[in-house]
Specification:
Elements lengths: L2 H22 L2 H20 L7 H25 L4 H20 L5 H25 L7 H20 L5 H27 L1 H9 L1
């Protein structure tokens, strides 16, 4: 009688381990993309004093939204939960990228607002995810810190009465840095999934 539950539990653990190993194989993708985000953010912030035209800002913002959109759609395709939310974020980011490249002048103020709202919603999303995964993810507190920072910058950006080229490019740079940090943390979190599964069943 006791052998059957034990066998069933063993099967569940084996299935969970197989899924964890499959997901952990792609940890380096998060690491590479995180490093690229950090480089992009550093380049943007380093060149902020030389970026003087609306078109230049729109190009940087367009690249940012393009990368965010592609990344969110990839996550939506492989995530086991919240797929639809990642897909919505991805589609909205791609639309923002198209607007930035196609109409840089008229959309300057809109880009600032969109970027601010993105930081706000992405920060809330990180906070919810960190709270939800706090018992299974060791580095949940890092996602919490980044989430709080994104929400704070998003609120500040929305409440700021003026919009300038310098300010918008700073927002673009900080957004890229936030994405880089979360991707690198996610890389090591995904890499440790098999160990976390073993510990959970141990």
């Amino acid at each position: 009688m006791d052998a059957e539950p034990a066998t069933e539990a063993g099967g569940v653990e084996a299935e969970a381990q197989a899924v964890a190993r499959m997901l952990s194989r792609g940890w380096w993708v998060y690491l590479v993309t995180g490093a690229l985000w950090l480089i992009f953010g550093w380049v943007v912030l380093s060149a902020r004093s030389e970026i003087r035209t609306v078109w230049a800002v729109a190009v940087y913002a367009g690249v940012l939204f393009l990368l965010v959109g592609i990344g969110q759609l990839v996550v939506a395709a492989v995530a086991e939960s919240w797929n639809w939310l990642h897909a919505v974020f991805g589609v909205l980011a791609l639309l923002a990228a198209v607007a930035a490249f196609a109409w840089p002048g008229p959309t300057f103020l809109t880009l600032a607002a969109v970027l601010a709202w993105y930081l706000l919603f992405d920060g809330v999303f990180l906070l919810v995810g960190a709270f939800y995964d706090r018992r299974v993810v060791d580095h949940w507190w890092i996602f919490t810190i980044v989430g709080v920072a994104e929400v704070a910058v998003g609120f500040w950006a929305l409440s700021y009465p003026g919009r300038s080229i310098l300010l918008l490019i700073v927002w673009v740079g900080f957004t890229a840095l936030f994405k880089g940090v979360t991707n690198i943390v996610a890389a090591f979190t995904v890499r440790s999934l098999p160990r976390e599964v073993h510990r959970a069943f141990g």
